[in-house]
Amino acid sequence: MFERRRLHLLLGAALTLSAFACSSDVGEEQEGIRTGAAGSSVSGSGTGGAGLSTTTGISTTSGPGNGGTSGSVTTGTTSGGSGGASGGSAGVGTGGSRDAGTDAGNRDAGADVPLPTCNYPEWSRSKAYKTGEIVMYMGKPYIALNDNTSLDPTISTFYWAPYAGCKPPAPPPPALCPVLDKLLPNGENTFKAMLTPTFQGWVPLAAYSYTNLCKALATPGLTGFVRSGNETQDKREIAAFFANVALETAYLTYIDEAGHAASAQDYHGRGSLQLTGQANYSDCGAFLGLNLVGQPQLASQAPVIWQSGMWYWMLHANPSVGGAQICHNAIAQGNFGQTVRIIKGDCASASDRAAQYRKNCTMLGVDPGTTTCQ
């Protein structure tokens, strides 16, 4: 009887120890849940096995959330008891699975207001400018820092400075001119390059545009200009014509002879080759169907400024020179120097014109031929 009672006591003690062990497992699991509840996420998994295993770890992750940088710190304890599995993973830290930061990359902090397109007048050599006035010069805006006259915006930083309050307008697409485009490698861009001087401050007059030149080429009676069908001859002719025009007009910056007004009722030099004298006005006017003697001012307007130069080049003869007396015929013979003598009557400016002609021929990839003026 005593032995049986002892056996019951031992069995009860064993059961009590077993129950205590089980309650320990449950307590740890509940503690994991309670700890997880302090965070923002709870997850757990366990795999049953013999014995007791405990794993603790800390992991930190951060990444951008919607409108912020979120961070989470996770600690967890996984415990497994005999014949069963239990586990807990608790999210502890700031933010958990929620955003707790600021992401400047995903938040509009106030985009810059786009600059307006510049719409200021073109700079003029004859205008007096007051401090604060804004102009366009060679496609860019400038503001006057001090009063000035005849000083272009690239001459001195004392008088002018680049203006940052607007953006320059997009350049217009190149004009098309079928007659010249097949001779000039880059069409209008080559035209501009051939007539661009080495000095700064160059602003060609709008009347001498590529478009107005192309209109003049369509004039009846001038269709032989640069259209012989011989590529070398035609390229030499356009190079020679532009070389003489460059020197006659100071690289397209003058229409009227220096010291003369376009409105003057006289026969001063006008246009691309500076048509001069009443006789020439009369002959050119008759060819173009214009009364240039009665209205000489017309010779200062586009496209007449190009037409008069082409008329002189193609049809006007200078009987005072030996050899070819018409520019078109002289260049057809490969003799650039003779075109200078026909236009000027002498060779005083031949060196500068020949240098410009050789430069033009290089751009067109053609041999210049004879450049000597005799």
Structure description:
- 34% of the residues lie in helices and 13% in strands.
- It has 374 residues and is of the alpha+beta class.
- A 3-stranded antiparallel sheet has the order 1-2-3. A 3-stranded antiparallel sheet has the order 5-6-8, with no helix packed on it. Strands 4-7 form a two-stranded antiparallel ribbon.
- A hairpin with a 2-residue loop joins strand 1 and strand 2.
- The longest helix has 37 residues, at 2-38.
- Residues 7-11 and 13-109 have low confidence and may be disordered.
Describe the secondary-structure layout.
Blueprint (H helix, E strand, L loop, with lengths): L1 H37 L14 E13 L2 E13 L5 E6 L36 E2 L4 E4 L2 E5 L3 E2 L10 E3 L15 H4 L6 H7 L15 H8 L13 H18 L29 H11 L15 H12 L11 H6 L3 H9 L5 H15 L10
Helix pairs in contact: 4-7, 5-10, 9-10
User: Strand arrangement, largest sheet?
Assistant: 1-2-3
Structural class per helix/strand content?
alpha+beta
Evaluate the radius of gyration.
Answer: 45 Å
- Poorly predicted runs: 7-11, 13-109
Give average pLDDT, whole number.
Answer: 79
- What is the general shape? globular
In the CATH hierarchy, the architecture of one domain is: Orthogonal Bundle
What is the CATH top level name of one domain?
Mainly Alpha
Q: Please summarize the sheet with the most strands.
A: 3 strands, antiparallel
Annotation, overall tally of beta strands: 8
**Helix-strand string:** HEEEEEEEEHHHHHHHHH
Beta-strand content:
5-15%
Instruction: Enter the CATH topology name of one domain.
Output: Lysozyme
Helix content: 25-40%
